[in-house]
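Final report, closing paragraph on structural work. Over the funding period we assembled a curated collection of sequence-structure pairs, and we close with a single example.
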Amino acid sequence: MQEVNFDEVVDLILARDNRFHRDAYGFLREALDFTQKLICKENQGKVRHVTGQELLDGLRQYTLHQFGPMSVTVLEEWGIHQSKDFGEIVFNMVEIGLLAKTDRDSRDDFRDGFDFNDAFRKPFWPASRLKREAKPATK
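Its predicted structure, as stored:
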């Protein structure tokens, strides 16, 4: 069996769908590895399929770890503006054979995963702003 060259396969994806930057595909692959390691640790070393929701959580954690307060800026530069965009990238990779899916996996798994503001901006807000945001509006 011939080994797949990731960059060449991403070229094929980008020829069909250029909504997302090349780097988004490599990043997603790294985030999937990160997520699989987290799940493997939780399951006493057992490897299993990662669900869309698990991948989104892993993507959120990995993005914050890699880019910190610049997370939204980097993701938007790559064409990623909401969690459903991660699903589009995943399914582009599935359709070309880079990733596998089960019958239960779908693009909808990524649709309303998380709000980018809550996931990537709020962790870096000062405590005073968080407190202000948490207070209920008074009449």
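DSSP finds seven helices and no strands in the chain. The helical segments are 6-16, 22-42, 52-67, 71-77, 83-95, 116-121, 127-134. We thank the funder for supporting this effort.
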